[in-house]
Amino acid sequence: MKFKGNITRLALVLIALCWISSCDLQEANENPNAVSEVNVDVLLPATQANMTWAIGDFASQSASSFVQYMTGTLNVQFNISTYEYLPANFQTTWNNHFYAGAMMDLKTIIDLSNGPGGSAHYRGVAKIQMAILLGYLVDLWGDVPFSQALDLATYPQPAYDSGAELYQEVFRMLDEGIADLSGQSTFSPSRNDLVFPAATETAWRANSRTRWIKTANAFKARFHNHLSKVDPTGSAQQALQAIQAGTFVNNAEEMKVSFGNTPDAGGPWFGFLLGTFGQNNISVTQEFIDFLENRVQPGVDDPRLPFYVSTNSNGNYVGTPNGGTNVTNRSILGPYVNSPQAPTNIITYAEVKFIEAEANLRLGQFDQAAAAFNAAVKASIQRVTGGSDAAYEAIFASETGATIQVNGVEKLFTEKYIDMFLQTEAWADWRRSIPARAPATTSGIPNLEPAPGNLTGGAFPRRFLYPPSELDNNSANVPETSRLAKVFWDL
Questions:
Q1: What confidence category does residue 161 fall into, taking pLDDT thresholds of 50, 70 and 90?
Q2: I need a labelling partner for 266 at 20 to 30 A (CA). Which of 316, 401, 402, 438 fits?
Q3: What pLDDT does 276 receive?
Q4: Alpha carbon 125 to chain centroid, angstroms
Q5: How far apart are CA 348 and CA 346, in angstroms?
Q6: C-alpha separations of 58 from 64, 254, 272, 278 in Å
Q7: Sign of the Cα pseudo-torsion (55, 359, 350, 442, in order)
Q8: How big is the CA angle at 337 (ends 483 and 453), to the nearest 5 degrees?
Q9: 7-258+457-473: CATH architecture
Q10: What does the mean pLDDT of the chain come to?
């Protein structure tokens, strides 16, 4: 069961076909990829490409505006920054990438792998991906369809499941994925695994399979940590247990996807910025540039700044004020993101160490918290810049059990915010850092100010809106639609 040919191009073509087909959740059973004649080895790369676009395309653009890495300057992106976004803005992400794009195909892989042929390893990878996507759906929208959503022939108007219940499903699927990968399988992925490719099935079993298991444990830690407001102690203990079960030990093991090193094979952010639409409609905020300039000392910037942001023609970093329009001779995103070979980070070693630090901090285990925090900052600098930075690390990665107790939460969320640049997950962290039951105008960490002229009177959005396909075709089941409604873990 080896897939031959150009996997990257096939996956991107499948995405393009879905993109232009106007498919929606109500048409997901008509997805041309989700048919029994298609083998699991052909479906897998398409699911991984769609997963990456679901996480790294419009969802990432929107989240990056909410936490003010970026600001929209025209059209939809401007509406996101001023909190005037509409249900229609989320149609493609919900339909083409999450449900009809990746999740229907993942269900097909799981169903086919349950039959004769022994594809347990494909099933394990598919369950882990399904869990990841379902977790993102809950984190971005709240309650969503799942138990009935992938069987529309039987349930044309699928019920919405509660986010809290779906999180338990996420943990169940991650555990089942680990179990599938821990056993034998007649067939395994190889080159057709876009995330952790291997030259042969034997090589994949020896190396990639372990990385998928570590990825599943990393996501268990992330999703348990999301419950920090709901159950501060229990969530910390569960997150640490997931990490102790075995996850990434360095940057080389983390989950990130890079589709190629040519413009027609780049990732979501590069593809968006390649055309004038992306370049004209979104900009790095001046506030984020100010945050990183002179961070070490006057004249010495955060070492990640030139990788995150390019200087303009005059050699300066010039952003757009949040909620403003494009300024003359502004900076564009730097090579860490704005290059064909730039990876889309799904979950990183640095994030896992930040989770470890936060969980230990909540449990009062300060020495362990400090050690994990220092490792996280160093891993971030290494991943972004390719080296270490003694001056930065002496100030921001030299915590002790005593010093981490002084403003430790602010230190942790601030450094994690810098590390998570343009990742959708950064918005989840920012929302978690807002005190429970605080007024809707209360900022998380770092402190942000809403864009001038915002639609919500200075209240910060806490979720995406359900798309028109749901409002039109499944309105009886659609729950709260307010921008200010919180997902279940965001008290």
A1: very high
A2: 316
A3: 67
A4: 17
A5: 7
A6: 10, 23, 9, 11
A7: positive
A8: 30
A9: Alpha Horseshoe (1.25)
A10: 91
